[in-house]
Design goal:
The structure holds two protein chains of two kinds.
Chain A: H1 2-7, H2 12-23, H3 28-40, H4 53-68, H5 73-86, H6 94-112, H7 118-143, E1 150-161, E2 164-172, E3 182-186, E4 194-198, E5 209-214, H8 220-227, E6 234-237, E7 254-259, H9 263-274, E8 282-288, H10 297-306, E9 310-316, H11 329-335, E10 343-347, H12 350-362, E11 370-372
Parallel strand pairs in A: 7-8, 7-10, 8-9, 10-11
Antiparallel strand pairs in A: 1-2, 1-6, 2-5, 3-4, 3-6
Chain B: H1 14-19, H2 34-70, H3 85-155, H4 162-227
Helix pairs in contact in B: 3-4
The chains are: A alpha/beta, B mainly alpha.
């Protein structure tokens, strides 16, 4: 990558010092940046949500990451390419990159005060050009293989539990993905707010996708998806992302642990395994707080009855009426047997995923055999 | 008529006006009163002088202000009466930033409120379900014990023919059990369902009231904020 080596020509030390210097001003910096950008280019405001709080945090986090790795070009390039592709669904085009550069340099100059020099201006402008170049090149390359976003038509929205809905969506054009992956979803009821949801099915012949959405208390997007959808309404879907996919190089038996709607990617992988000539043994734990939140038990039981390689155990962790095992997810899994030697796939609430994988690791499962989702830096 | 300003290169000066001369009209032809023309020209000359003086002083003022801007006037110094383009931009950025922060706060408040509301609804729902379950268990237990009593009473009733009567009375006892059980259970279920319906109706009424109140508040709030830009 010849262009990247040139990045080393930029004085990394000076950039880092300059960034540390303005980072002291905290939220003021991104606030100034976006206001400056919107005053110069009012049309860009439409690409952002009403509340900019999360957006400002993302900007600062991404900037901090880029600056800290500015002298490690290869690592940075992977991140920037992803970022460039990721920005397509937001409607970002090449011209916007120049607008952002102007406002960024203006902002840094503003907060640098007397420390602002022509050399520093050149450093920032050059560094930005390299960054924008990598992002734009990746975005352009992506254009030939994939649309910026897919239009999704909701075919049905079924309330499976008090706070869980299952959506069937037909994307246009066809959206190809690997079971276990996710897409970012935007509802027209909450413009410019994107949230990741996993497809709960392996690719189907008719191309439709199934999403399991849990209503998060106070969650803007989950509310729109569980309560404001009806057949025929449309959504926007981003490109498929995610690393929680079946490791086809391994022949080991599989342990799957799904908390609430974390079941979705696991179900997609089970459907995929069912199509393999020699399915591996799968043991699936499905956890929810209460019995009626075990929203998909019936279809899981059906799957288990169809496939002798699949064992399903549904557990309500905090329901006094539940007659099976109760307790924390990690406890129940640990009590239920020795899982060393299994490939493990865990999905669900962050805390549950973390605790359960730590427990399995301390019980002897190698870390590399534990698969969890990681969207990296491409938080929508 | 001879006046210099007819020359295209030059502009009309007070001197031109002063030195302007007009040939007299030939005898027998009508013409303006010479004195009136002179008086008017004097007035034009005075006006021109005033305008030119004003122009010079305005020019000087513009120059002075331009120098102040170029010398990098900082806000606050000189009372900050005048902004350079840079300052104006920074001020615009500040105003927009404040507006954005206000919008962020509104969204965050709305989200916090919705969070609290769903959380409360969820726990209230759990309470109602637990209460309903407890009630159902109680009704069931009561119906069972009353039915058992009824059955025992039938069994203990005096018998006529020992064997057949024993069978019959056992059947009758079971029938009595089932009938009583069913009756007690139905009565309780009806009472409970009616109670539930009443509380749903009440809920509907109070929600309608709350929505009316909220929309009235919203309208009042709207005009209030208009009055205080």
């Amino acid at each position: 990558m010849p262009r990247l080596r040139k990045a080393n020509g930029v004085d990394a030390r000076r950039l880092k010092d300059s960034f540390a210097n303005i980072a002291m001003h905290g939220d003021e910096v991104p606030l100034f940046f976006y206001s400056d950008l919107f005053i110069r280019h009012p049309e860009v405001r439409d690409l952002f949500p009403v509340s900019m709080k999360a957006q400002r945090d993302h900007l600062v986090a991404a900037l901090a990451k880029v600056i800290s790795q500015v002298d490690r070009a290869d690592e940075l390039a992977v991140f920037l390419k992803g970022l460039g592709r990721d920005h397509r669904k937001f409607g970002v085009i090449a011209e916007h990159y120049d607008s952002v550069r102007d406002s960024l340099v203006e902002t840094i100059a503003h907060f640098s005060g007397d420390a602002w020099t022509p050399e520093l201006a050149t450093d920032w402008t050059d560094a930005y050009s390299l960054i924008a170049d990598i992002m734009l090149t990746a975005a352009k390359k992506d254009e030939s293989t994939s649309p910026a976003f897919w239009q999704g038509t909701v075919l049905s929205c079924e309330r499976k539990a008090f706070d869980i809905a299952v959506l069937q969506v037909r994307p246009e054009p066809r959206l190809d993905f690997t079971p276990g992956q996710s897409v970012a979803i935007e509802s027209p009821a909450r413009p410019r707010l994107w949230r990741y949801y996993s497809m709960a099915n392996a690719p189907r012949e008719d191309g439709t996708l199934e999403f399991h959405v849990r209503l998060i208390d106070g969650g803007a997007v989950s509310m729109a998806l569980t309560h404001l959808q009806s057949a025929g309404s449309t959504l926007r879907l981003g490109p498929p992302v995610g690393v929680l996919t079946l490791d086809s190089t391994s022949g080991s038996d599989i342990l799957m642990i799904g908390g609430s709607t974390g079941l979705a990617p696991l179900k997609a992988m089970i459907e995929q395994i069912a199509t393999l000539p020699q399915p591996r043994k799968v043991h699936l734990f499905f956890f929810a707080r209460t019995m009626d939140s075990l929203y998909d038990v019936r279809s899981l039981e059906k799957l288990a009855a169809e496939h002798d390689w699949l064992t399903v155990l549904a557990v309500a962790t905090a329901d006094p009426k539940f007659e099976g095992q109760t307790g924390s997810v990690a406890d129940v899994v640990a009590r239920s047997g020795s899982w060393t030697g299994r490939e493990v796939y865990i999905a669900g609430p962050t805390e549950m995923v973390r605790e359960t994988s730590e427990r399995l690791i301390s019980a002897g499962t190698p870390r590399e055999q534990i698969h969890v989702e990681d969207f990296g830096w491409s938080e929508p | 008529m001879t006046i210099a300003w007819q020359d295209e290169q030059k502009r009309l000066t007070p001197d031109d006006v002063q030195s302007a001369s007009f040939p007299l009209s030939r005898l027998g032809r009508r013409g303006y009163d010479e004195e009136h023309v002179r008086a008017f020209l004097r007035e034009v000359e005075r006006e021109l002088v005033t305008l030119l003086n004003e122009k010079v002083s305005l020019w000087n003022e513009v120059e002075r202000l331009r120098r102040r801007i170029l010398s990098g006037m900082k806000p606050g110094k000189d009372g900050g009466v005048l902004f350079g383009r840079e300052d104006a931009h920074v001020h615009a950025v500040r105003i927009l930033s404040n507006a954005q922060l206000t919008a962020d706060r509104y969204v965050a408040d709305a989200q916090a409120y919705s969070h609290r509301l769903t959380e409360e609804a969820r726990s209230r729902r759990d309470e109602i379900l637990t209460e309903a379950q407890r009630h159902a268990d109680m009704v069931l237990a009561e119906a069972q014990s009353r039915a058992r009593e009824a059955a025992l009473a039938t069994l203990n009733a005096p018998s006529v023919a020992p064997q057949m009567e024993a069978d019959r009375s056992a059947l009758k006892a079971e029938l009595a059990y089932l009938r009583t059980f069913g009756e007690v259970y139905r009565t309780h279920l009806r009472a409970y369902t009616e109670g539930m319906l009443r509380s749903i109706a009440e809920w509907e009424r109070s929600e309608a009231g709350a929505i009316e109140q909220a929309s009235a508040d919203a309208e009042a709030g709207g005009s209030f904020s208009l009055g205080h830009p």
